[in-house]
Amino acid sequence: MKEKISSFFRFQERGTSFKVETIAGITTFMTMAYILVVQPSLMVGDADYVIDTNGVMITKEAILVTCALVSAVITLFMALYANMPFALSTGMGNNAMFGAMLIAGAISFGGIMSLILISGAIFVLLTVFGVRDLIVKTIPKNLKIAISTAIGFYIAYLGFKNSGIGTFVDGISQGDFKQPSVYLAIFGLILIAVLTARKVTGAILIGIVAVTVLGIPLGVTTVPETLAKVPDFDGLGNLMFAFDFKEVLSFSAIPLIFVSFCGDFFSTLGTVLGVGAKAGMLDENGNLPNIQKPFLVDAIGTCVGACTGNTVVTTFVESSAGVEAGGRTGFASVITAIIFALMVFLSPLVLMIPNAATGPALIFVGFLMIQGIQNIDFSDFTEAFGPFVMIMFTIFTGSIAGGISAGIIAHGVIKLLTGRWKEVHPFLYVLCIPLILYFLS
């Protein structure tokens, strides 16, 4: 069996082994397992469930189970089809945006899945027809960086809010530091930071586990009667093929689709090239041979995710941890997929994790996402103004879609009114029209 596995995944050609790939797969899971905790928390909030605008109950357990299942299936697809050590799950950013809208009653769960399905379908078509470069040229570098940065600030905001470290009822203020949950959250943030500085693998996951355990005697963590069980398939039924396409028939849907697509597309592009470089897979021109394969897997993953109640499924940059551990083939992803599949039966164990543990994780993930701000070119005001507007609008209005829309419009307007309109791709001007209508609708 080992010989067949070695031959299929080309171990000898890529200079790896069964043992190394297994360790790499476990390492990748350890670094991205936090998504199984964060995804349900972002989509449902503090409670165990949320009732959407159509009266459909969406439970944390169902979100967790389907997230684990889809992560396993799509990661396995990446392994067998692309033979790459990349793992996939629900990407950070879109889940925060759509979760906040769902909880606020601004959109139905079916509407969210409809928007994500359209985003994924666009991604599939662009990948199949090979027009990736057109999208890359349309969005300026500074705006691409600002999208990730703006989402990072928003995710950090959710971490402060959910953990109680900050309150946002009447402006921005400090939380109640006398509450055990708050000082546990602060401890968790410090622990994650220290472990990361010391280059400890799985720092976020360790922080989550530590706060959860410490929260038991303090009454912050509630221990369930059982730590493993067969999934509640009734709850899953509310998530499967739950489309509500009437939500798509408005101008407000355009920026949401745009944010979903761009977040997935550029995250995948950056992650695939970045992790591929660490694995020594790039050619002499810095390109990844057969890059269309991981792109197609990612795009199909988003479509499958929408059909099963998941926000945008994307390639995780945490795959680099597995690559650093020696992973060079898709077999590392097979191991990661198997562990994700096992988590389907451990939902009570994951759901016991309190907001005091997930909050610090969100804050830290936000920190990781905003680091790209250092790459924004501030030497040219007309290039920096759009990103500035995008980031500020996202932070102070609490809307990712509104912030990104405002940033794109600002970029087009400043270039147009300063006589530098030729520096902007024509398609971006076309995109500005529905984005302006979004604010007026």
Automatic annotation (TrEMBL):
Pfam families: Xan_ur_permease. Keywords: Membrane, Transmembrane, Transmembrane helix, Transport. InterPro entries: Azg-like, NCS2. It is found in: Endomembrane system. The chain crosses the membrane at residues 62-82, 102-131, 143-160, 180-197, 204-228, 248-275, 295-317, 329-351, 358-376, 388-412, 424-440. It is a multi-pass membrane protein. Belongs to the nucleobase:cation symporter-2 (NCS2) (TC 2.A.40) family. Azg-like subfamily. This is NCS2 family permease. It comes from Faecalicatena fissicatena.
